[in-house]
RNA sequence: GGCCCUGUAGUUCAAUGGAUAGAACGGAAGUUUCCUAAACUUUAAAUAUAGGUUCGAUUCCUAUCGGGGCUACCA
């Protein structure tokens, strides 16, 4: 239980005794006293919402509550009333006891998964025709971090990936390889598999444009040129062959996809991401037709004259939506319906989270509505974790202009920057080379991950590589650095066998640092309900900053009073533990020294 | 056109309907060398506009104006 929950419970009790009305603790807003009134108290109860029931003025209500609380509890030192705010000062002994109890617990704030119904988190979902880029990085980091946060709340989680490995776009790169590839492979070219395939996709586009250009020069319109293009019709032909299970086409498809997977695997490894299960659209794209039949029988769907099947969502403010083409083949929506059902049957989840970019908001609105109309009660437990685009300081990434930032290149660049900065300062001259490389990885990736995760997912954001790796400011390296520094302090204090003593006189600063005691579990909780790692990221920064201030005012190793030194060391242990656990929830490592 | 998201210091980000809108980077001034990439203190600087609901609005509602996205028998 957090201190806030405890106080809310006490407040409910006090209110009941005073006014004879039974309210639940959640009816009481207990907040951290705002900084300017910290002299008045540690926590504040907002009494405005209670006035209708108390039938007294704000001041009077607050005063009565304050008296009653002090009477019936033993946590409160004193209180003051300012307008409708009842400021409560918590007894110092309470803090000390609280910290004493917690500081040896290194998994502070985290729970073990309890089993029960899992939450399925789908993320990443790449196409096999091009390598991962900066946008995918945001997706992967969000999905992975959200899954970690849910686990820290005791939730069991299934991480799933749905690979888009079929379709006309895949055929384009296959065709380009067949026509212009000269049997090149990742081994023979030394290129990463996903890059190689991506290059052929680009090559197809280039050749296709050339062909169209020459057709237009002969007097065709652009649309006609597109339709008359040999390349495009060959690609379509290839897709048909693929669907007819043509062995040669399938073999080529399979070979090139394997190249890509090997490349993806490497990128995932770099990012520290793993999945419990990977689905392939080639295996799931025919699903969903059963659901369409079901819908037809129920009269939820209708058939047009050309035999295509639709759902009418105009009464919900959306459009009519196609679910099956006239020739009976399915579309994206159809297979997503099927995949959702498959996943539901397979995991019996309490919730299904889809980490997908916000350009698909409409798609997911429709998906949920259709499922609801099919009487799938679990449609309400589908959550689209929608996130915004990542832009660069120079502007938007555009594949046409070649400004797409490749994931691997970016990761490499971050590591190189970390190395350069470290070498310039000569901070780790005593590290062996293996240790040093590990540090560069940790810092480079930490910078990247933190910078992306600290932003509210639904907002578009600007990623600035050089700013992200700054060792000052709201950055990953700053937090890593703070952690390493605490560890260094603790190493030097080792052998002194410190313990917490109740007699310590606390300084206001130290009390404010100790907010971590009630806030960390709360923060994880909030982050889980909002599916937002940014909550945790920003909290960790606040904590690290506060520790630095604290350290500046109370240089621990120079402290001569044993009691207060012990207290501060214990606080350092606790802070380090929260920083480490918190960063873990973001998928970020912290170095023991740097 | 319709639908969805979004608009906060110069910039990048915060703020369950609560007190005087917080930080960081950058700018200006100063203190210090404490363990580690310096730190600390002070300072200037923002809620797009107009209404509404409320004891109280950055937050909720309406309109207007900006930015982004969706509006495929592509996935």
General description of the model:
This protein is an alpha/beta fold and 594 residues long. 55% of the residues lie in helices and 11% in strands. The chain is built from 23 helices and 14 strands. The protein has helices at 3-19, 51-54, 58-72, 92-102, 134-152, 168-180, 186-189, 193-217, 222-228, 230-243, 247-271, 281-284, 289-298, 332-347, 361-373, 407-425, 433-453, 465-468, 476-493, 508-513, 516-530, 533-553, 562-585; strands at residues 30-32, 43-46, 76-82, 85-90, 119-122, 157-163, 277-280, 301-303, 309-312, 320-324, 351-357, 382-387, 390-391, 461-462. Helix 5 links the parallel strand 5 (119-122) and strand 6 (157-163). Helix 1 packs across helix 3 (58-72), helix 5 crosses helix 21 and helix 6 (168-180) crosses helix 10 (230-243). The two termini are 35 Å apart. It binds one RNA strand of 75 nucleotides through helix 15, helix 16, strand 14, helix 19 and helix 22.
């Amino acid at each position: 239980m957090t201190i806030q929950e405890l106080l809310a419970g006490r407040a409910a009790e006090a209110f009941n005794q005073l006014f004879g009305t039974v309210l639940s603790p959640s009816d009481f807003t207990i907040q951290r006293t705002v900084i300017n009134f910290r002299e008045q108290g540690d926590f504040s109860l907002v009494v405005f919402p209670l006035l209708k029931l108390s039938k007294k003025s704000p001041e009077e209500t607050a005063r009565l509550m304050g008296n009653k609380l002090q009477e019936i509890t033993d946590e409160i030192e004193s209180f003051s009333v300012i307008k409708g705010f009842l400021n409560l000062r918590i007894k110092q002994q309470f803090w000390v006891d609280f910290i004493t109890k917690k500081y040896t617990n290194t998994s502070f704030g985290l729970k073990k998964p309890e089993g029960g119904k899992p939450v399925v988190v789908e993320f990443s979902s790449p196409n096999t025709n091009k390598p991962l880029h900066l946008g995918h990085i945001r997706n992967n980091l969000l999905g992975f971090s959200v899954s970690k946060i849910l686990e820290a709340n005791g939730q069991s989680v299934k991480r799933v990936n749905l690979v888009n490995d079929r379709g006309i776009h895949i055929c384009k790169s296959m065709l380009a390889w067949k026509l212009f590839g000269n049997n090149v492979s990742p081994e023979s070219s030394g290129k990463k598999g996903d890059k190689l395939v991506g290059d052929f996709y680009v090559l197809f586009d280039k050749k296709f444009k050339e062909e169209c250009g020459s057709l237009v020069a002969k007097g065709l319109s652009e649309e006609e040129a597109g339709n008359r293009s040999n390349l495009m019709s060959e690609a379509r032909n290839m897709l048909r062959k693929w669907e007819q299970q043509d062995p040669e086409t399938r073999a080529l498809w399979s070979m090139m996809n394997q190249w890509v997977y090997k490349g993806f695997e490497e990128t995932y490894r770099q990012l520290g991401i793993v999945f419990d299960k990977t689905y392939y659209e080639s295996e799931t794209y025919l699903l969903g037709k059963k659901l369409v039949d079901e819908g037809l029988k129920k009269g939820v769907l209708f058939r047009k004259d050309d035999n295509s099947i639709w759902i009418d969502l105009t009464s919900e403010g959306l459009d009519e939506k196609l679910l099956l083409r006239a020739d009976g083949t399915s579309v994206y929506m159809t297979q997503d319906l099927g995949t959702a059902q498959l996943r539901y049957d397979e995991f019996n989840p309490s919730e299904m989270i889809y980490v997908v970019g916000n350009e698909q908001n409409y798609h997911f609105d429709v998906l949920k509505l259709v499922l609801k109309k099919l009487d799938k009660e679990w449609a309400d437990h589908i959550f689209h974790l929608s996130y915004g685009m990542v832009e660069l300081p120079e502007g938007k990434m555009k594949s046409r202009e070649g400004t797409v930032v490749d994931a691997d290149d970016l990761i490499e660049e971050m590591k190189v920057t970390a190395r350069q900065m470290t070498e310039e300062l000569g901070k780790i001259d005593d590290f062996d080379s293996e240790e040093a490389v590990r540090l560069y990885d940790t810092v480079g990736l930490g910078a990247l991950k933190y910078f992306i995760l600290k932003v509210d997912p639904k907002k578009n954001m600007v990623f600035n590589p050089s700013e992200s790796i700054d060792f000052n400011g709201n950055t990953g390296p700053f937090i890593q650095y703070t952690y390493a520094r605490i560890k260094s302090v603790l190493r030097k204090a080792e052998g002194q066998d410190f313990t917490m003593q109740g007699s310590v006189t606390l300084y206001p600063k130290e009390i404010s640092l100790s907010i971590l005691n009630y806030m960390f579990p709360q923060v994880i909780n909030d982050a889980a309900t909002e599916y937002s790692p940014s909550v945790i990221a920003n909290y960790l920064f606040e904590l690290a900053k506060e520790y630095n201030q604290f350290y500046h005012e109370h240089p621990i190793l120079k402290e001569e009073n044993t009691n207060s030194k012990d207290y501060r060391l214990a606080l350092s242990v606790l802070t380090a533990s929260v920083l480490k656990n918190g960063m873990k929830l973001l998928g970020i490592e912290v170095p023991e020294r740097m």
